[in-house]
């Protein structure tokens, strides 16, 4: 317990037996013990980013470990002395951590076998703001915390940073980006032999015949106009970190294509009720259009593009088989003709999917619009890339138990449906069965033929 004398000063000695009064406590360490200056420094050689408070007779005041005499030595174990230490940034170094923003005393190792400075920081799990003469770094822990919060609660870098600043002393530093490296790592591109700047689009149309099956996916195209951003910067001044390595298409070619298609009449596929509203005027983009894998509900590489007024969403249909469906949740609101002609249940080869991938993806990412609408082009695209990548990553990491669960359900359902079909067919004459089968197969091969699933009972 905190023992204070009648005048508000500490009245007991530290447990170490020294003469210094125990007027310090740690906000992160377990317990409420008060200790002296020497003990607090010694205890925190392995925890140099904890928040320390000093008793000021009437209240506790935050105090830095640096001011108490702690200096962090990189390149050696805690407590070891480097005979060739190199003081960092004039004895002041800034560390951003989940506990707050710290001004610390830091020494780099200058021994003969020492790594360069930014490598020494990375080995300590501190992410430097720059590789040249770093003066600021963020812990891996705080970067991971922000990364998760940006996905689950859609917190912006601005809000996250100011939350840390309020927990500290309103120190101002620039937030450090981490998500681009994580995205490259998860996609297997983090160690590209020639550097990520040499990565190119895959060119699916030119792959070998044996590999074309990789690109034969069920796709769902969706447009969303709630992700809007202003022309606050430019691609020249603010280029993307991801370039063509992630989900957004290559911007220069994409804008060139849009300019060419500006005067081409477009088929109306979407109800663009927000494209010409007052709130959309003066915006560099009114949203994004995406191509999703409707089987696995994942965003596809180079499958995202910005939308402007008069969206150009058409694509070259030559040598492609295009079939249209209405997602299962939405189809009940459509006419009976839609329910039979565009149903997943009645179409061959689509499997047991619901087609709701785009809507579910937007439900996940819509909340990030509050942050992206004020960003420049690079920050906005990279932020959306990061969120799309996290959506895909969560899918990949859950495939194991999800696919196992669905496989078990499919085995049981297949047996049940097979038995029920056999029972139904046993009470129907062979002539009718063969006629119905022929009608279904004819319609599956040519959708212009009569639809066998349409009701033939005339309602009075």
Summarize the structure.
The protein is 32% helix and 15% strand.
Describe this structure in words.
The protein is of the alpha+beta class. It folds into three domains: about 1-70, no CATH class; about 70-175, no CATH class; about 210-395, no CATH class. About 30% of the residues lie in helices and about 15% in strands. The chain has 13 helices and 14 strands. The protein has helices at about 35-45, 65-70, 115-125, 140-150, 155-165, 180-185, 250-260, 330, 335-340, 355-365, 370, 375-425, 430-445, and strands at about 25, 50-55, 60-65, 70-75, 85, 95, 100-110, 125-130, 135-140, 220-225, 230, 285, 285-295, 300-305. Strands 4, 5, 6, 7, 8 and 9 form a six-stranded mixed β-sheet that branches. The protein has a three-stranded antiparallel β-sheet with strand order 1-2-3. Strands 10-13-14 form a three-stranded antiparallel β-sheet, covered by helices on one side. A hairpin with a 4-residue loop joins strand 13 and strand 14 (about 300-305). Helix 6 runs parallel beside helix 12. The longest helix has about 50 residues, at about 375-425. The radius of gyration is 31 Å and the shape is elongated.
